[in-house]
Each structure stands twice: as C-alpha cells, then as structure tokens.
Amino acid sequence: MDASVEELDKKFMSIGLNETRVKDTLKNKKLSSALNRVIDEAKLDGSGCDRSVGNLLMTLANESLKQKDTKLQKHEPYICSKIVKGDIKSTLQVNAAIAYCKSTDSVNDEEFDKESGVGVTCTPEQITELVGQYLKENEAKIIEQRYSSFNATSSALRQHPILKWASQLDVKQTLDKKYLELLGPKDERDAPVGKKGKGNKGKADTKDQKKGTTGSSKSNYNMFEEGFLAKLHKPGGNPQLIPERMKEHLQATGGGVVTRFPPEPNGYLHIGHSKAIAVNFGFARYHKGICYLRFDDTNPEAEEAKYFESIKDIISWLGFSPYKITYSSDYFDQLYELAELLIKKGKGYICHCTDTEIKKARGGEERGPRYACVHRDRPIEESLAEFRNMRDGKYRPKEAILRMKQNLDDGNPQMWDLIAYRVLDTPHPRTGDKWKIYPTYDFTHCLVDSFENITHSLCTTEFILSRVSYEWLCNTLEVYCPAQREYGRLNVVGTLMSKRKIMKLVNEGYVHGWDDPRLYTLVALRRRGVPPGAILEFVSEVGVTTAISNIEVARIENCVRSFLENSVPRLMFLPDPVKVTLENLADDYREEIQMPFNPKNTSMGSRTQYLTKTVYIDRSDFREEASSDFFRLTLNQPVGLFRASCPVVAKKIVKDDKGNVVEIIAEYDQSLSNKPKTFVQWVSEDAASNSPVRLAETRLYNNLFKCDNPAVLKDQDLADQLNPESEIVLKNSMVETGIYDLIKSAPWPKTDSSAGVDKAGSPESVRFQAMRVGYFCLDKTSISPDKLVLNRIVSLRGEESAKNKD
C-alpha cells in the first residue's frame, strides 16, 4: 500500500531534509517514490538519520530515478548500507558507487570500497606530495605549455585514484602554489590566443606590440625577452683585460648565467627590493643559470641576526631558492690579501685625513679644485706597514684608512681615491673579534663578484658611476672582471621606503613595528596578506628599463586585486552586523544551503551554510526609509539573502536607548510573493555549526600619510602628515563558518607566528574575498580559531562594491 503524503512528509523530515526541500520533493511523485524506497532500503527503523546521511540518500534516489538502471536498483540496498554505516561520506563517493554497481552483476566488497574511495583519507602533506609527483612526471610538457596546461592538469588530478577523494579546494590551492614555483608568474606567453575586443583595450604598451600582415599582435611585456634584460650579453661576452681570465671563468661556470642578490643585512627589505630579487633570481632562472644570495656583511655596526633571517624568509616566500648562500665575510682573508697587493702595486695608500679634509680635497661643497691628499705619495713600504698596524688594532676608528690611488683628474667622483678599508672597533656577527679593519662596499663588491664568477652584476642606476671604479679595481688587481649593468630602480609614491624614516616611525610608536601592514616593507606586505605571486606579477607588469619607475600605491593595489579576484574563495562577511529575527520560522528551523567558494571557479569546491530563525545582515544593508537608489532591506522593501530560497520582509525594528537599530523583526517569505531587487550577505545564529564566527578584530588599512609624497618630508614633519584613519579597527564583525574550511586547508601553524616563516599554513596564507567589502587575510595575532583577527588586503573596486547580485 502506498504511503500517504503525511507519512512521506514525516519520513522525509526524519532524514534531515528541511521543510522547503520536503515540499518540493512531495510535488514530484516519482522522486517521492524513489526516495521512499531508498529510505526503506537503508533500514533506519523509523529512527531517522542526520542531515548529511539524508542528503546522500536523496542523491542516490535522484540518480536512480534518472538512470533507470536495473543493476543499480538491484544494488541500491548495498549502497544504502554503506551510506548509513558511514563508509560513504560524499556525493562524489555516491556517484562512484553508482558507476561501479552499474558495471557489475555481483558486488565485491573489496572492489566496491576501492572504486568508491571507502576508507581513503588524504592529508595536506599527502596532497602536496601527490600533486608534486604528478607535476614532476609531466614537468617537460607543463614547462612547454606553461599555464595553458593548468586546466588539463587540474582535470587529471580530479581523476587521480587518491586525490579525487581529497578536498578539491586543498588540491586547487596546492596546484596554484606548485605552478608558481615551477613557472614563475604569468607573462605574455600565457596570454589567451586570439583574444579580441576588450582584452587589449586600454593597454599602454602599444609601442611594444609587433603587428604582422595577419593583424595578430605580440603584447604583454616580458622583462626577460624584451627591453633591457633581453639586450644583455651572453656569458663570455664581456671582454677581459687579460683574456686568460675569461677562459678560467668559462671553465668554472660551464658557460652558464651566474647572478647574485647582495643585500646589506642592516634592515628589512621593502617593495623596491622585490624588483632586484625578481631581476637577479628571475634572470638566472629564465636562462637556467644560478643565483647566489650574498649578504654584504662588511659593516658589523649595523648588522643583526634578525635581518639575515628575514631576508632569507622573504626570498623563499617570493618563490626563489638561492644556488648558495654566501657572505662577503667568507672572503675577508682573500680581500685582505688583495688589499696588500693593491698597496704593493702602488695603487693603494694609508691616509690619516679627517672626513672634512677628504671632502675639501675633492672640491668641497663649492666644487672647487681637487688636490691630492698629503699621504698619497708616501712610500709603498710605509703604507704596507701602516695597513698592518691598522689590522693589528694600533689605530682607532677614523685615525687611518686605506684609500685606492685612482685618478683625481677624472670627472667621475667614483675615481677620486675611494676608501677601501677602515677601522671599526666592533665584533663581527660571523668572524667575532678576528678583524679590526673591514673592507668597504666599493672594495668588496666587485671583488666578491669576481670570486663567485658572476656573469651579470645587475644593480640599479644609482651605481652607474661606480661601474668605472668597479672595472678599475678588478683590472688593477688582474682578476676576472664581471660586467656590471644598471636598470632603473622601483620607487613607490605615497609611502616611505627610507629605512631611517621608517625606523623613526617604529621607535616613536606611530606604527606597530616593521611589519605594520600600512608600510611597504615586504614583511609588512606579507602580513597584510599580499600574495607573493601578486608582487612578482606587479614587477613584471612594471617592466625593466634604465628609467626609474615611480609607481602610485593605487597601481600596486590594482595588481593585487587582479591577482586575488579568481584565486581566492569568497565568504560572507559583516563589518557591522545587525540581528534579524525571522518570526515566522520555528525555533529549530534549519535550512541547508550549498554555496560555491567561487562561482567563477568551481574547482575551489563549496561549503554548507545553515539558515535559521536568527540571522545577521550588515547594518549598511538596512534603512528605515526606502529611496530610489537603495535596493536593499527597508520596512517597505524586501531583500533576498544570498543563495537562500526565499526573500526577507521587514515588519518592525527594535532600537536601544540611543536610537540605534539593534534588531529587525522580519518574515521569511516562503510564499515568494515579494520579489527582491537584490541580495545581501548574511550569517546565521546556529550553534550546531558554531555560527556566527565573531571576530576579535577586523583591521581596515588606508594610506599611512595624508600627503601624496611623504618621502620629501623632513623627519620632524612626519607625524603631522600621518593619516588618522590609516588603521580602522572593528570590534563587532562577523564572518561565516566557511572560514574554518579555509583554515583547515591551510593548517594552523604549530610555531610562533612572529617567527616570520611564511609557509602554507601561516595565518596570512588564509585569504578570501569578503563579498562587497574587500579582500582579507588572517593576521598573525590570531592566536586560535576562536579568536581571529582579520586584515584587509585591499578594498574592492568601486563598481564591485556598489552592488552584488551573485
């Protein structure tokens, strides 16, 4: 005897389906019959089951009805038993089980489990290992096809015998990271072929486009194939004063490219350094060469261990691995020997002049005539003895220096007898008290480049005058002379990049340390949540020429937005929530709603949200009075809740003593008689899913300074130009529980987040788009999942934040 509608209603509710879904199912007699049969086959004995099991049973009933396969219907009870037992936990497993059952007359337990992924678990470590293994096996093809192979790779991983059962969001994020490590940021090789219309509209690089008779064009600047870097010599192409040195050099390098990134460990790197890192490491990577990370640690007075570690972390974070980490101090013995050789050649002398006397002899501020130091022509033996006295600690700082005897008649100041060694009464972090004298940058840099067989000594144009002294010293000492070449530095207008000025802000408490997200140090940008790939894409977009690049902050932010738009999930977030009570719903009402993490990128997967009697919307989404330009909730205007099945109709409001709205009494219009003009985001009150997620703090960042160019300010004027709204802290914000899925996919760090290690799992790697608000990440002060702090990375574009109808 067929069950009555009332019996089916009760039966369907017992497996956790919400009221709306039950009503929809009862309208379809065939589906009702199939679901009734499946519930009976599950042998629930009237006790029902939880919602997750019920949803899987509904999926099985739906597919069975669609496919009308006799073998499937025969094995339905077996699939039901596996669902109820908990062996099958996802829709993907149900579909795999159905496919297996359709292919066999008799179910084999072992085969069924294998084909349906029963018992298969996939940890984040396994995902990383398996994705890496697949990429390694297909590396040649991926390198050839570059990012055009991404979709095919993603599809292949979804068919992987283990990865297909893993969280697809985790797999996608791992694949993104691995592609970036292997290929670097996208460039013109990854531009869509034959893209027409708006794709190239507004491009400023028309002078770089090369059009043929077919009308096709080559656009999107590649800094390694066009312009300055493309014109650099090939290894062996820099002539030597002594040809034998080139033979020795090529024998040592095998004819490959060798570069170096040589930071001074006396501060934190800033956004401008990202260009130097990308140029030096990227140029070597592009030409399949090697790049050293060399710390120019010749000034022990300013060096600290924290700077060494920070620089190494930042380079790794940007996706580069040094061929070898070296230090100028590794070569102190060799440098000292060459300094003595310089003196013996009559090209170096010990000088006892003061700074004022040296400056005056070079022409002074009046740029008068230059003249030789009184010590310049002292006997070689005397200078050699005095140099050894310096080495042995017989002079205090500034009492004696070693100077190079260059050419005072040269118009280039870098040839006016530069200082090669000075006395510093400071222990060195690596060599301790061994040395009382230390080489200068001008003496050290070119010689260590020579020791390491650098093929391309790439630096910014402020060193262009130094090229003459660089080559003079190498040639005078008859060592291999690398080729120094200069490109324009990267300046960011609207912020500070001066270490001295930033230190003033830090020391006087105007900012919260060197990693304050309002700064443009790389540790600050990392903490703010800016992805390393976005920084590299920005550098590539700016390009490399000999001209200095002065870039507005807004251009960097646009590049970051573009990078984040399709690479991060989307969550519902309420900066300033207000309570909405849906009075026509039962206290235990719980509507399950599936939401994709990114509707434009379904490979990111989805999450489940539950709509209940109490929800929250953002205060900006409600007004008491309607107006022609406001489409959200008012007392006279309904609004839709994002992805929910019914609109909300406000009935009345509750205010506190100050006149602020604290609650909106409304109805969930299940009659669908009120058509909303738009949809708003929401977060429910649902204890079962730990919703809402109440945030400890949400920090909104704006420009640190009120003026356009703080770099020109005097130190005493910095404080007066600080923007009082550069950091806005919200204490009452909420976000949906989908954030826990993101935290789970980037495991919570086990170590102190202040250690500066930015790996998959650091708080700032948990990034998302808060719909209609901006892009956010977790801050390092998020001490646990129930005490979360958010940083806004960048706001949304104006047109994106105006209205959201997704």
From TrEMBL:
Residues 186-219 are annotated as: Disordered. It catalyses: tRNA(Gln) + L-glutamine + ATP = L-glutaminyl-tRNA(Gln) + AMP + diphosphate. PROSITE patterns: AA_TRNA_LIGASE_I. Residues 680-742 form the tRNA synthetases class I (E and Q) anti-codon binding domain. GO terms for molecular function: ATP binding; glutamine-tRNA ligase activity. Its EC number is 6.1.1.18. Residues 569-669 form the Glutamyl/glutaminyl-tRNA synthetase class Ib anti-codon binding domain. It is an enzyme of class 6 (ligase). Keywords: Aminoacyl-tRNA synthetase, ATP-binding, Ligase, Nucleotide-binding, Protein biosynthesis. Residues 6-167, 171-249 form the Glutaminyl-tRNA synthetase class Ib non-specific RNA-binding domain. InterPro entries: aa-tRNA-synth_I_CS, Gln-tRNA-synth, Gln-tRNA-synth_Ib_RNA-bd_2, Gln-tRNA-synth_Ib_RNA-bd_N, Gln-tRNA-synth_Ib_RNA-bd_N_1, Gln-tRNA-synth_Ib_RNA-bd_N_2, Gln/Glu-tRNA_Ligase, Glu/Gln-tRNA-synth. Pfam families: tRNA-synt_1c, tRNA-synt_1c_C, tRNA-synt_1c_C2, tRNA_synt_1c_R1, tRNA_synt_1c_R2. One of its GO terms (biological process) is glutaminyl-tRNA aminoacylation. Residues 202-211 have a biased composition (Basic and acidic residues). Residues 257-564 form the Glutamyl/glutaminyl-tRNA synthetase class Ib catalytic domain. GO terms for cellular component: cytosol. PANTHER family: GLUTAMINE--TRNA LIGASE, GLUTAMINE-TRNA LIGASE. Belongs to the class-I aminoacyl-tRNA synthetase family. This is glutamine--tRNA ligase.
